[in-house]
Structures are given as structure tokens and as C-alpha cells.
Design brief:
Shape: globular
Number of strands: 11
Strand content: 15-25%
CATH superfamily of the largest domain: Spore Coat Polysaccharide Biosynthesis Protein SpsA, Chain A
CATH class of the largest domain: Alpha Beta
Distance between the termini: 64 Å
CATH topology of the largest domain: Spore Coat Polysaccharide Biosynthesis Protein SpsA, Chain A
Helix content: 40-55%
Number of domains: 2
Radius of gyration: 23 Å
Structural class: alpha/beta
Length: about 400
């Protein structure tokens, strides 16, 4: 059986730490907790699970803290979790079984799916693989002050049957990551290509759209950038372009995503001037790899906002037809392969006057997310129009 040291870095996590450790404590052989300056009961909670608790002075560098935590591990593998991660019961059972598998005996790096967003019934709709366990006997190091990753080599195994679930209780997105990147720049430490991508994304999250456009374009021009990050950067760049345009001109309609509102009330939200730039940014992703469902969906959404419903239908249908490739290392939006294109196709066909096709697409959307407010709203809408032909 492979032995595993769970290595965590924590700070003020009293609200979630016990939940995390309860979900995994009987599946690992050692728990290492590195505290970076808690002022709440985090360390007292950790002490209920382990005596391997260490202090590490926070220096605005997640990789440094991760490396310190791994240095305290004594088992064959070091495994990391964040305090707001959990192992679902079925995943813990599978994890215990896989620890005894021949594949893990010869593995150096074990990739595990990370589920980070969920639908109304708790099913994952956004995920990606992360290097979750590393054999301590091979050379390895965490790099990156923010969005840190393990740099290592060796035999990689994908643990396809198990996943880590991210269950954050935070209600707002802090500016911590942005501050760390800007401190790094001020201190004269160059940003790697990966850093530049995530810095651009942080700028977008904090609505610094024009700066984000500059940084993301710099990243896309860097030959060292990873293909998956470049595809994602094209999508974020398109968002920034539309936001810059929307700030300079009052939108003509509803800017909300119809998947979270009344889908049939959706109308054009951005002026055509922004559409060309956003479309160019999305199309740029085709320079790096075959079209992804996530990009095709965004193109369809953009064309739908421009009320070009026929063209939008093409891109939504293409998104729906493309297979998921969850081992590419990139972010995978399951909704972009099924639910979202279907709910938008419902709107497009309705606008094109094909009510029968619109109802069919709404029914398909319901097969993916039967508790979706948009699907249920449309269902009632079509029922009411069938009962009263005067209802539009």
C-alpha cells in the first residue's frame, strides 16, 4: 500500500478545517499542517487531528509555504489540499482502494480531478486535473507566488475514478492575489509566462479591464505560454474587450447570462463595436488548438447578443457536438458541452420563429440540469403559450 502525507497550509480556517480533515483523515497516513499566521482557532482545531503543526512566517509566496509543508512529510507521497476542499464519501472510498493498486505503486505523480463549480443539484459542472500527489523521492518543487504549481517529472497516473471537491464558504473575492503579483513586480522579480496569465486574470476579476487587456496580450505574444492558458486567455480577453466597450456606451439590453435568468427575455447587450474585437479574441484561440466547446459557446453567445441568431445556432450546435477532453490540463466547463448551448439554442430558435425546435432544445437542456431556473421558466412559458395562444 502506498503511504501518503497530507500537507496543508492554512490561515484563519476555523470555519472549514475540521470539515476538510474529517473527510480525509482515515485515508492518509500522516497529516502535516503549516500555519501561516492564524489569529482564530485554526491551530487548536488542527491539533485534534495531528501533532505535526508548524509555523511559517507568511511572505506573500504560496510556493514557499507549500515547499515548507512538503519538507515536513515523511511518507512515500505528499498530497496537498486547501482547507475548503473535501473528499466526498465515495471519493474517499475510491482513494483508499487506489492506494492499494499496482498503478500507484509505480507512479511518481498522481493527477486527480478538481471539481470547483456545481449545478443546482450539486453535480460538478466545472473541473480540471491537478497534480495532487507527488512521490517524495523524485525531484520536485512548487513554483509561483500565486496559483502555485508543482514542477516535477516522472511517471504520471490519472486517478480518473476519484475527485477532490472545492466547497468554499467565502462570500467575496479578495484582492490578496492581485496584491501579491503587484508586490512581485515592484520588487523586480520577473513574471513567468504562467504568472502573466494569472495576473491578467486577476486584473479582469478586479475590473481593471484595460490593464488586463495589455497583460493578456503580452502573455499571448510570449512563446513560453502554455497552450491551455493561451486558449483561456483568449476567452478572458474577449470579456475585457466587451467590458471596456460597455463602460463607454450604455448597453441596449439585458447583460445578464440567460442561464441564470429568464432565458426567453434575453436580448442584445453590447454594441457591435465591441463584438468585432471580442470575436477576434475568441477566434485567436484557434491558432493554438482545435476549437473547444467553451470557446464555441462564447462565440455563439456573442453572436446571440448581436441578435445574429442563425449564426449563433451554428456555434451552439458545434459546442454541443464537441467531446470533453479533461486530460488536456485545461479548465473544462461541462455546461458548455450541453446545458448552456441547449438553453441558448432554445432562445435562438424561438427568436427565429421555430417554437417547436425551441421547445425541443429546452427539453434537452433539462436533461442536463432538470432543476435549472432557466429551463423551468421556459417550460412554464411554453406551457402557458400552448394554453393561451395570445401569450407572447
Amino acid at each position: 500500500m502506498a503511504t501518503v502525507s497530507l500537507c496543508m497550509i492554512v490561515k484563519n480556517e476555523e470555519a472549514v478545517l475540521a470539515r476538510c480533515l474529517d473527510s480525509i483523515q482515515d485515508a492518509v497516513d500522516e497529516i502535516v499542517i503549516v500555519d501561516t499566521g492564524s489569529t482564530d482557532a485554526t491551530k487548536e482545531i488542527a491539533a485534534r487531528y495531528t501533532d505535526k503543526i508548524y509555523d511559517f512566517a507568511w511572505i506573500d509566496d504560496f510556493a514557499a509555504a507549500r515547499n515548507f509543508s512538503f519538507s515536513k512529510a515523511s511518507m512515500e507521497f505528499a498530497m496537498w489540499l486547501d482547507a475548503d476542499d473535501v473528499f466526498a464519501e465515495q471519493d474517499r472510498s475510491v482513494f483508499l482502494r487506489l492506494k492499494n493498486s499496482p498503478a500507484w505503486e509505480t507512479a511518481d505523480v498522481i493527477m486527480v480531478r478538481y471539481n470547483t463549480a456545481f449545478d443546482e443539484q450539486g453535480n460538478p459542472v466545472f473541473s480540471y486535473y491537478r497534480e495532487r500527489l507527488v512521490r517524495l523521492s523524485i525531484p520536485h518543487v512548487w513554483k509561483g507566488r500565486v496559483h502555485e504549481a508543482i514542477v516535477c517529472s516522472g511517471r504520471t497516473v490519472y486517478a480518473e475514478e476519484v475527485a477532490v471537491t472545492h466547497r468554499s464558504v467565502k462570500t467575496s473575492y479578495s484582492d490578496r492575489n492581485l496584491r501579491i503579483y503587484e508586490r512581485q513586480i515592484q520588487e523586480g522579480e520577473p513574471l513567468s509566462a504562467r504568472d502573466r496569465f494569472y495576473y491578467g486574470r486577476e486584473l479582469y476579476y478586479h475590473r481593471h479591464y484595460e490593464r488586463a487587456i495589455l497583460v493578456l496580450n503580452e502573455f499571448l505574444a510570449d512563446e513560453q505560454g502554455w497552450m491551455e492558458n493561451k486558449i483561456e486567455a483568449c476567452k478572458i480577453l474577449s470579456y475585457c474587450i466587451r467590458e471596456v466597450a460597455s463602460l463607454s456606451q450604455v448597453p441596449t439590453g439585458n447583460r445578464d447570462d440567460p442561464s441564470t435568468d429568464n432565458a426567453l427575455d434575453y436580448s442584445s447587450g453590447y454594441p457591435s463595436a465591441s463584438a468585432a474585437g471580442a470575436l477576434a479574441a475568441l477566434s485567436r484561440s484557434f491558432l493554438y488548438d482545435l476549437p473547444r466547446a467553451e470557446i464555441c459557446y462564447e462565440i455563439g453567445n456573442l453572436l446571440m447578443q448581436e441578435q445574429n441568431y442563425r449564426a449563433a445556432v451554428f456555434w451552439f450546435e458545434l459546442a454541443r457536438s464537441l467531446p470533453e477532453n479533461d486530460k488536456s490540463g485545461g479548465f473544462v466547463s461541462t455546461d458548455s458541452h450541453g446545458y448552456l448551448p441547449c438553453i441558448q439554442l432554445c432562445v435562438c430558435y424561438y427568436r427565429l420563429g421555430d417554437k417547436k425546435k425551441a421547445e425541443e432544445c429546452n427539453r434537452m437542456a433539462g436533461t442536463y440540469r432538470p432543476a435549472s431556473p432557466a429551463y423551468l421558466y421556459n417550460l412554464k412559458f411554453f406551457e402557458s403559450t400552448a394554453a393561451n395562444s395570445n401569450v407572447v
